[in-house]
Structures are given as C-alpha cells and as structure tokens.
Amino acid sequence: MQQILDFLVKIWDYFASNILTQPAYMIGFIVLLGYILERKPLYESIAGFLKAVIGYMILMVGSGGLVNSFRPILTGLKDRFNLTATVIDPYFGQNAVTEGLEKTFGRTFGDVMLLLLFAFVFNILLVRFQKWTKLRAVFTTGNVQVQQAATAFWILLFCFPKMGRIEVLLVMGVVLGLYWAVGSNMTVRYTQDLTDGGGFAVAHQQMFGIAFVSWLADKFKAREVKAKKKARRLEDIELPGFLKIFNENMVATGILMLFFFGIIMLILGKSYFVGVFAATKGASGLAPNASFLFYIMTTSLGFAVNLTILQLGVRTFVGELTESFTGISDRLLPGSVPGIDVAATFAFGEPNAVTIGFLFGALGQFLAIGALLIFHSPTIIIAGFIPLFFDNAAFGVFANRRAGAKAAMILPFFSGLIQVFGAALISTWIGLSKFGGYLGMFDWDTVWPFFTVLMKILGIAGIVVVVLILVLIPQLEYRHDPKNYFLMVTDYEQYKENMAKKKATK
What we know:
Layout: H1 2-20, H2 23-37, H3 42-80, E1 85-88, H4 90-105, H5 110-128, H6 130-133, E2 137-139, H7 142-159, H8 165-186, H9 188-195, E3 201-202, H10 207-226, H11 249-268, H12 270-279, H13 292-331, E4 337-340, H14 351-374, E5 380-383, H15 385-403, H16 405-430, E6 437-438, H17 442-458, H18 460-480, H19 482-485, H20 487-490, H21 492-504
Parallel strand pairs: 1-5, 1-6, 2-4, 3-4
Helix pairs in contact: 2-3, 2-13, 3-11, 3-13, 4-7, 5-7, 5-8, 7-8, 7-17, 8-18, 10-15, 11-13, 11-14, 14-15, 14-16, 15-16, 16-17, 17-18
C-alpha cells in the first residue's frame, strides 16, 4: 500500500513540477485535452497544443522582460537609501515564506505543494457541481497558485499555530480552493464584456479587485449619466497639436516610461548600475564606459517593446484556448471557462489604458511609501514591479472600458495607496516583513487581511465565516440575473441580445 502511495505522490510531483506550475504547458495541456474531447484530428490537436504553448511563452517573454528590466531599478532604491524594507512582489513573498516556515513554525515548503493539490482539486469539484455552487471558472495559472498557496499556508499557521498538518492542509485547501473558484468567477462578467465574449476569466492576484474596480467604475458612469455628462474613454480623446503623438500607444508608452523610470534611474545614479554590471558579471547593469543616457533610453523604451510582445502572445494562444475549452466545458465541466493570467486582458480595450493605470497606480504607491517614511512606520515597503504594473494596469483597462478616462486614472491611484498601506499592515502583523517580502497584490492587501482578522479573532468560527462568505458570493451573483448568469458563458451572442432588450425596456 505504501509503495502505491509513493508512486502516486511521484506522479503528482512530476505533474505539478512540469505541467501544473508551468502555465505554458498547463494551457497547452488544456488545449490538447479540449481538442481530443472534441474529437479533432490528432494533427490539429498537436498543432493547437504547440500554438498555445508558444503563444503563452511569447506572453511570458514580454511579461518576464517587464519584470526583469525594472525590478532591479525599484529594489535599487532600497540599496541606495539603505532601507530595511519589505518588497511587495509575489516572488519575494514566496521566498520569504520559504525562508521563514521552518524558523517560525517548524514546517517545510513541501506542504505548500500538497496544499496546492487539495485546493486545485476542490476548485474543479466546485465548478463540476455548479448547479449548486454557481461557479463557472477553473483557476489555471500555476505559478500564481504556488505563490498564493505559500502565503495562505503561512496565514493559516499564523492563525492556528498548533493545528495539525492534515487539518491545516484540508482547511486551507477548502478556503484557497474556494477563493480561486469564487474570485475567478467574479471576473467572468467583466472579462466577457471587455473581450466581447473572449471565453475566459482572470485567474491571478487581483480577482476581487477587478470586480470591485469594475463595480466602482459602473458607479462613476452612472453618476456621469445622471449629471448628463458623457464619460469619455481614453480612445475617444483627441489631443491637440504636438500632443497628438500620445495618440499612438507605442509612442505614448515610450515617452511616459522614459520620464517615469528616467527620473528613478537618475536618482540612483550611473555608479549604481555600473556596480550592478560588476556584481552580475555583465548580465545586467551598465558597462563602465557605456553611455548612461542611452542606457536609460534603452531600459525605458524596453517597456513598450515588452508590452507589444506580451500582447502578441495573448493573441496567439487565447483563440486556441477558448475554442478548445468548448470540448472540456461540453463533456467534463459544462458551462465553465478557464481562468488565465491577467496579462491576457491587456490585448483588449484601449492600449493606453495599460500605461495610464500603471502610472497612476505607481503615483499612489510612491505617495504611500513616502507617508510610511514620514510617520516612521515599523515596516517600510519597497514597490515591486508585479503589483505596481499588473494590478494597476488591469484596473486601468477595466475602468476605462466601463467608465472612461477619469475612472482609469482615479481607481488605480487609490489601488496604489491600498497596496502599500495594506501590505505594510498585514506583513508586519503576521511576521513576514522580517523576512523581506510579501505577496503584495491587491486581493492580498484587502481580502486576505480581512480573512486573517476573522480567523485570528474568532478561531474555528472564523474559518466557518470565511467559507460562508465565499460560498454566498456566487449565490448572490446568480440571484441578481439568473436568466443570463450561465448564458454569458454558454452563448454570449444570445446574452448580448438579451441585455440589449433589457436596456431598451428601461
């Protein structure tokens, strides 16, 4: 019996290491399975698999380029001013958990992977029994699942340090699986609207954030309509004179990033980047005899390059994924959609909304960091590029789509404030700040601190309350519009027709 269990564990480890936690191959696997279930010819199935994998790899090149180019610049601020600080970044957060688990709780990171398994299986079961759960999205972003499983594991151990190993895994497997299913489900309506029936949801670190920002944006629009004002989207704004150059997304992105990161790089100074060059043996940084001006230009304009690459990757794999997922939804998980990386939304809507969301979110973050320094906060936050960009850029895209340019500026700005203040409070309280990192994305600065308070104060009753809240959310969503709730996934054209008729009768 033990040998069988060991064999099954090895299979799971192999699947988790090579497919589940590797988003490109996970997406490719889903596409392959979908085409097989649709009984497509083998060559079409293999071609779809390869196209999906390559497309996602292209997306990751763009995404990785953004992160790798600018993370050293932001963390350089920490070195430049000798700050003992916590970096809000999913990878810094994961490393902090890895370093601190044994020292703080006497647990190992291996349990995190088991937690991921329990939560993922539970997510699938919740969608399979959607007749009762009202859940429609499967979380497939594997690298994000690892990061979240690590932080969630730490949070539960913080709340219940004496809870047994199996109990921790089962309890958090239920809570995390519910969060994945409920959070990605909350984005279905807004993502379908943004992509005109793209057939996917967002499965990332700001799912509740997207739903909340979209809801607030709708309130913005309603107020504008009531005041008989037209909410202008970014794409509707025609700039006069020389400002017309900002109408071109690639040019606007390049200029704004040159200004934004140029200032930071000038503050850090040439010597810092020369030092990085020496420390990395030429892998990054500035060669001693190279031009600092052109280094700034190359680094800043690389933002526009990587963003373009990212959008190309999205266009390459999304079509294959949505088409093939029909086979899975028809045969295994009826009425469901895949939840994928938030970066997929950047290829839809107004491209400048990505840049605007990022910049105003960054402004909010930097003002909040300044406030922490002024008021001598016990934890100083260093902006990580992933929350800085992926949260706020997404909020800009969704807000602009629903309520126009004003919402695309204001809502990411407040998101930036929340990210820093929320991360400072929760990372200090649960003890992750002393290990130098916290996940720091929007949901983990708002929703999860709220869950932590409930579980820490109420004990086991807090777990029950958290579960009940998560179970109740999709039920309320369904009751709001039962006729169209599943239709927006199964037949989007009919859904649009129904909504048009509904709007006309008001």
